[in-house]
Write a structure and sequence with these properties.
- The longest helix is centred in the middle third of the chain and has 26 residues, at 117-142.
- This protein is an alpha+beta fold and 373 residues long.
- The radius of gyration is 24 Å and the shape is globular.
- It contains six helices and 20 strands.
- The termini are far apart.
- The strands form five sheets. Strands 8, 9, 10, 11, 12, 13, 14 and 20 form an eight-stranded mixed sheet that branches. Strands 1, 2, 5, 15, 16 and 17 form a six-stranded mixed sheet that branches.
- The chain has a domain at 168-309 and 351-367.
């Protein structure tokens, strides 16, 4: 009986698996499936810029248009010559290639197993790419690498594609408890509802009007304004145990009864406090050198609004975001499958009146020790 066989390096396999890889990786990636939207009107914490997916180039420039500051003209006073100019501030993200691969072994290895090694290679690489993207988003949004030992990237990593990590500026960095700096964080300065309220207050009151700081724009969900706080499970533990059973129940109920509870931003969340949707993820950056003795364990939660970071893709030549390549080595004995993509990630950051300022994200640093060492 005749049957269709798509062999090694078959063009149909390349395009098919390239498309699958893009879809699968987006499903696996925490940030892609929850917080990413395409284009300037998406209003999500991660803004995807599509300009280079079909055009040549290695850099996308995007602008921030500041609010008007002019005082209104009253009565019959002459307005001519008092008009204000539109003020634009510019940031840019570079793209570059990143690659990974799987060696499926020799002919005898493939002969001994009933598994479809091509499908397994796609699945494992999809998971790997999702992890790569999430780790990059955490590092760029945090402006640091941290000490997380589970990361693929080494602790010496400083950025990708000419997009260097940028530490939070003073206005976009908040500490737990009564701490005001990294050096005076102690073990009592943990995550609690008070620090969430402080972050909300600072975000609401920050910038706008005649100030030179851009305001963190809330994410609009079914017409309601929300922010997102993404914390470490160790910070989550402190919040749960410190809030008390009744308060924690209220936090969960607030999310369950919210108008936008079917939004991806709500799904899988811990709850909501003061219109801040709470999330937890193990890849939130951790540190071990806080406090006067540089020995206090800490974590950097991310307080997110719109356009906290941008992500740009460039097509590798197939018209798809990922490229899939299969080749034989060792005189045809080994089958090697590699994948690649061209992209860039960067925290939104604009230089305003000579000072670089974050936009859309605030770091919330608290003591966070492992509750079950």
């Amino acid at each position: 009986m005749a049957r269709t066989i798509i062999g090694l390096n078959d063009a149909k396999a390349v395009k098919r698996y390239s498309a699958f890889l893009a879809v699968d990786s987006a499903r696996v990636s925490y940030f892609s499936k929850k917080f990413m939207g395409k284009g300037p009107e998406s209003g999500m914490p991660i803004q995807m810029l599509p300009q280079l997916e079909n055009d040549a180039g290695e850099q996308i420039t995007y602008d921030l248009n500041m609010q008007l500051r002019q005082q209104p003209i009253e009565g019959d006073a002459v307005q001519e010559g008092t008009e204000e100019d539109l003020k634009f501030y510019t940031d840019q993200v570079y793209i570059d290639q990143m690659r990974g691969g799987v060696n499926t072994g020799g002919r005898m290895t493939r002969k001994r197993t009933i598994h479809d090694l091509r499908k397994l290679a796609r699945k494992r690489q999809s998971e790997w790419w999702g992890r790569v993207f999430d780790e990059l988003f955490f590092m760029y949004l945090s402006g640091a690498r941290g000490t997380n030992s589970e990361y693929i990237f080494p602790t010496s990593y400083t950025g990708f594609a000419n997009n260097a990590f940028a530490a939070p500026d003073a206005e976009h960095l908040l500490y737990g408890g009564n701490a005001t700096a990294k050096a005076n964080v102690d073990s009592a300065d943990i995550m609690d509802t008070t620090v969430i309220d402080k972050a909300k207050t600072r975000a609401v009151m920050m910038g706008g009007g005649t100030q030179g700081t851009p305001q963190i724009q809330p994410v609009m969900i079914d017409g309601e304004e929300h922010y997102v706080l993404l914390m470490s499970p160790w910070q989550e533990y402190d919040l749960r145990t410190g809030s008390g059973a009744s308060n924690w129940l209220e936090i969960q109920k607030a999310a369950a009864t919210a108008e936008g509870r079917n939004s991806p931003i709500f799904k899988g969340g811990l709850g909501m406090h003061n219109n801040v949707v709470l999330h937890s993820h193990k890849s939130v950056l951790r540190f071990t050198d806080y406090g006067a003795g540089a020995n206090v364990a800490a974590a950097r939660a991310l307080y997110l609004g719109q356009q906290a970071a941008v992500c740009a893709f460039g097509s590798p030549g197939t018209g798809l975001r990922f490229d899939w390549h299969e080749e034989s080595r060792d005189n045809g004995n080994q089958a090697v499958i590699t994948s690649s993509t061209i992209f860039g990630i960067k925290k939104s950051r604009f230089t305003i009146d000579g000072t670089a300022k974050d936009f859309g994200v605030m770091a919330v640093d608290t003591a966070a020790a492992n509750p079950a060492p």
